[in-house]
């Protein structure tokens, strides 16, 4: 009688079930690997009503993409667990332990970290509640939907003036609030040359009426009517796990990876926004797929090594 597989033992544990993690799990499940995805259920684009720019899925609700992804993974035998990973351990011999908030423990031969990133929403009144609605960061995601409207770009973060030049592609009516940014003469000239208004002063609040953004208030009381505000937020990758396992990061804290997302720790990959802040949903899905193929190749190499050892030590044929 054959022993049933241990339900807590997997070829690959994927930490994070957004586009990157689910895409990887689909490839691995189809490669007949025992794959488990652990997902805390807080994808970065959750506040947005629609997801744009994903070929064949443009305009889909973000949650619907993930429901479809989880179904596809499950169809091939992949397991998706709604839980939070609270700790990782390496046995040092290419085996990992994964501790979940629920108390369950899993074991895996390889890890893929797809935990996304954390955006720092501007610290002004009502910003947090408008995030992803009419306080936006990504014109490629939502610019087309707000084209030709009176738009604003909020300063105070690196690259903000450049962001205003980008947003200008979608509307002739763009105002830049430098806020805490000190504009250079060159930036001021470039903004003026493209008819981007500059409103000096510290921004105090977004003004909302009937659940709609109507303007930006400065701390001296002035109100500038706008229907959408863009910002280039700073962000931090959710990659404590990679660092905790000893993975090296660059000077900005992003994991050092090869072209497949392989980190500097044996057996550990990372994909999507956890390592690449520029990854759109389709990019994150692509990175997950590439990492999955590399992981499967790595597992196959190990399977060959193990088979040869067993073969040599086995009984003569
Ligand atoms: C408001 C907004 C709107 C956007 N709109 C678009 C758009 O229209 N088109 C587009 O292409 N891109 C859009 N983006 C970008 C998009 O959100 C990212 O490209 C995408 O989410 C990256 O996918 P990911 O899988 O790397 O991370 P995520 O989608 O963020 O998924 C990470 C997952 O990991 C989970 N997780 C984190 N830590 C743990 C843990 N310890 N244990 C278990 N699970 C964990 C999280 O809960 C989450 O479910 C938008 C972003 C924002 C902020």
Q: What are the defining features of this structure?
A:
FAD/NAD(P)-binding domain, alpha/beta, five-stranded parallel sheet, 8 helices, binds flavin-adenine dinucleotide, 17 strands, 317 residues
Report on the structure:
With 317 residues, the chain is α/β, with parallel strands linked by helices. The chain has 2 domains: 9-118 and 234-311, FAD/NAD(P)-binding domain, CATH 3.50.50; 122-231, 3-Layer(bba) Sandwich (FAD/NAD(P)-binding domain). The chain is built from 8 helices and 17 strands. The strands form 4 sheets. Strands 1, 2, 3, 4, 5, 6 and 17 form a 7-stranded mixed β-sheet that branches. Strands 8-15-9-10-11 form a 5-stranded parallel β-sheet, covered by helices on one side. The protein has a 3-stranded antiparallel β-sheet with strand order 12-13-14, with no helix packed on it. Strand 10 (174-177), helix 6 (185-193) and strand 11 form a beta-alpha-beta unit. Helix 1 runs parallel beside helix 2 (62-75) and helix 1 (19-30) packs parallel to helix 8 (281-313). The longest helix has 33 residues, at 281-313. The radius of gyration is 23 Å and the shape is elongated. The two termini are 24 Å apart. The model has no long low-confidence stretch (mean pLDDT 96). Residues 15-21, 38-45, 47-48, 51-54, 84-85, 114-116, 119, 132, 138, 141, 238, 272-274, 279-282, 284 line the site of flavin-adenine dinucleotide.
């Amino acid at each position: 009688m054959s022993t049933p597989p241990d339900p807590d033992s997997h070829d690959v544990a994927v930490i994070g079930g957004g586009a990157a993690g689910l895409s990887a799990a689909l490839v691995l499940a189809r490669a007949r690997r025992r794959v488990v995805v652990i997902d805390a259920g807080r994808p970065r684009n959750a506040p947005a009503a629609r997801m744009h720019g994903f070929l064949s899925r443009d305009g889909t609700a973000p949650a619907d993409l993930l429901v479809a992804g989880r179904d596809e993974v499950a169809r091939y035998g992949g397991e998706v667990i709604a839980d939070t990973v609270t700790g990782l351990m390496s046995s040092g011999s290419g085996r990992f332990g994964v501790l979940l908030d629920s108390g369950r423990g899993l074991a895996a031969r390889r890890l893929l970290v797809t935990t996304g990133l954390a955006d720092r929403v501007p610290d002004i009144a009502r910003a947090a509640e408008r995030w992803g609605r009419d306080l936006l960061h990504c014109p490629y995601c939502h610019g087309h939907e707000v084209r030709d409207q009176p738009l604003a770009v909020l300063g105070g973060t690196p690259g903000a003036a450049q962001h205003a030049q980008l947003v200008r592609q979608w509307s002739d009516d763009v105002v830049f609030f430098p806020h805490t940014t000190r504009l250079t003469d060159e930036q001021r000239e470039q903004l003026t040359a493209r008819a981007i208004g500059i409103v000096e002063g510290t921004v105090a609040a977004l003004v909302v009426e009937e659940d709609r953004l109507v303007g930006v208030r400065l701390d001296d009381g002035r109100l500038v009517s706008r229907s959408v505000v863009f910002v280039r937020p700073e962000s931090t990758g959710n990659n404590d796990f990679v660092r905790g396992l000893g993975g090296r990061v660059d000077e900005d804290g992003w994991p050092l990876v090869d072209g497949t997302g392989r980190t500097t720790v044996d057996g550990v990959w990372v994909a999507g926004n956890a390592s690449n802040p520029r990854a759109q949903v389709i990019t994150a899905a692509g990175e997950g797929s590439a990492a999955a193929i590399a992981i499967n190749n790595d597992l196959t190499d190990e399977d060959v090594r193990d088979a040869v050892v067993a073969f040599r030590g086995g009984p003569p044929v």
